[in-house]
Specification:
- The structure is a single chain.
- The protein is of the alpha/beta class.
- The protein has nine helices and eight strands.
- Strands 1, 2, 3, 4, 5, 6, 7 and 8 form an eight-stranded mixed β-sheet that branches.
- Helix 1 runs antiparallel to helix 2, helix 1 packs across helix 6 and helix 2 crosses helix 3.
- The termini are far apart.
- About 3% of the residues have low confidence.
Length: 290
Amino acid sequence: MGTLRAFFILSVFVLVALLLIPLQFLGVKLGLPLRRTLPHRYHRFVCRLFGVKVTVIGAPPPGGALIAANHTGWLDIPILSSVTPVSFVSKAEVGRWPFFGTLARLQRTIFIRRERAKAAEDRDTIRRRLLQGDGLVIFPESTSSDGNRVLPFHSSLLAAAELPLGEDSAHHVRHALVQPVSIAYVALHGMPMGRETRPFFAWYGDMELVPHLWEALATGPIDVVVEFHPPLTIDEAGGRKALAARCEASVRSGLIRALSGIDAGPAALQDEELRQALNDAEEAETEEVG
């Protein structure tokens, strides 16, 4: 039964994607409003097709903002995009993936290149997109996890929060809003999902994409909780490292609440959580420098 389910879902997914690719291509090339709205509506359809029920807590950011989320795998893309129109900031290698790279480009993903000569150009692209009102998703863990925890946030991946976006009424430099978002995979077939079953949907390590996709579709449906935490700016946080720590602590709190079945909502960060996040950020920064 699972094999038939996976085959049906994958067939419909590919067929609908192929039908919509030309329309989205025109939307992107001509700068039409549907370049933002079509991926959002498409991924809402994809989540229903895949059997992903998304519960949203909090509100997405208004206008251009950076969304700092934990990363569990490929399912995070349709989940976040189904909730609000967004694009993603990703490593350049993703753009070269067969088929999925095409979908990423059509969602106007910003691919960050390693060459120093391209870094300034990529920053300008991010700044322009923020000024245009785009929501840009960044995964500051720099990799995906098993879905049971939040990995240390790398402050270097939040460098876009330092970009100047103009001045406010008091002639102070204005920076982008950064909104922490936690994504928690909480239930399978309506029953609480345990640590042993979450890897069916968490794509990490050396897992191959297509076999994992097939297994996930054969195993579902699942419930997911997405929580939008209060946004802040780099000025409010007191620097990039502190910003990464505060975002990490917010996301970790949201994940723990969701996986524990505790009613989520605005919760004050505990000092110990923030201290731990700061330590994690410092360790991640040391690893990057090394």
